[in-house]
Amino acid sequence: MKLNEIRIRDPYIVAHEGYYYLFGSFICNIADRSLRVMRSSDLIEWDEPKVIFTLDENSWATNSDGISGYCDIWAPEIHRYNGKFYLFVSLLGKDGKRGTQIAVSDTVDGIYEPIINAPSTPKADSCIDGTLYVEKGIPYMVYSADWPFNFSSEKKCYIGRICAVELTEDLKRPSGKPFVLFESDQAPTSADRPAVHDYKGETVTRYGSDAPFILRLSDGRLLLTWSPYPNMNYIVAGAISKNGSIFGKWEHLAEPIYDKNGGHAMFFEDFDGSKKMVIHGPEDDQNERTLIFNACEENGKIVLR
């Protein structure tokens, strides 16, 4: 199967031992309770999907919001940590709040088993798109605290936040208090341009904060990419921590890295050592595909080729 034939959201690619592995939110009906992976040797032709994770009926989470008609298992990421592979996946709790659960496998395309039957994101918020970041040996979950539990009565709209929380060494639970890196209406690529759309029969105004991903640049600074919906146009925005720490001051890029109605970015290196940025696009029901760009550092910035 060719890459441009695969309908997928939130694609995530791992290069490992001669093969590329594609994870993502494959569009499945609500009867499906599984995540899949596809394998390729050239990023063009891909094997048939293989199940790697199945949501147990006794899980804290459910597989459907009862609205979209699709399987509600989102945004899988795979991280190598302490000699094993860890799956970070966003699920909808039976209490109506979302969270990122972590599962583990000995192999990149093996069966992933939950490390606990609970999310590793803070339970007080509705959290999605958790990613792993390690600084000085300490693991952190960076995630989006997003709607529908983030309404600001002061600003009269939903405002997403990019947050982080220190995890225990075994990744099972938060070990510190969550902290906010920034709010989504603060960025020049998002400010004063909220998404306006229907939700459960009502028109809502929302500043989204999807898909945080942290990349260390060659000069030691941190780049955090994320995806808001300014005026209903899905983009890849960025923020920089100049001191190279998650606790640094995050300065927003004035222009988006990508602004053609695609987002949810991640980065990987291919087997030739070239850095790639991966997104889904367009943000258009039925037409989502994996898009792969060469991501070059030029004058301290990421430039797509």
Comma- or semicolon-separated keywords:
mainly beta, 4-stranded antiparallel β-sheet, 305 residues, Tachylectin-2, Chain A
Q: What does this protein structure show overall?
A:
This protein has 305 residues and is mainly β. It has one domain (3-304): Glycosyl hydrolase domain, family 43 (Tachylectin-2, Chain A, 5 Propeller). Helices cover 0% and strands 50% of the residues. It has no helices and 25 strands. It has strands spanning 8-16, 19-26, 34-40, 50-54, 61-62, 73-81, 84-93, 98-105, 113-114, 127-135, 138-145, 151-152, 157-159, 161-166, 179-183, 195-199, 202-207, 210-216, 222-227, 237-241, 250-252, 263-269, 275-281, 289-298, 301-304. Strands 5, 6, 7, 8 and 9 form a five-stranded antiparallel beta sheet that branches. A four-stranded antiparallel beta sheet has the order 1-2-3-4, with no helix packed on it. A four-stranded antiparallel beta sheet has the order 10-11-14-15, with no helix packed on it. β16 (195-199) and β17 form a beta hairpin. The chain is globular. The protein starts with 7 loop residues before the first strand and ends with a strand. The mean pLDDT is 94.
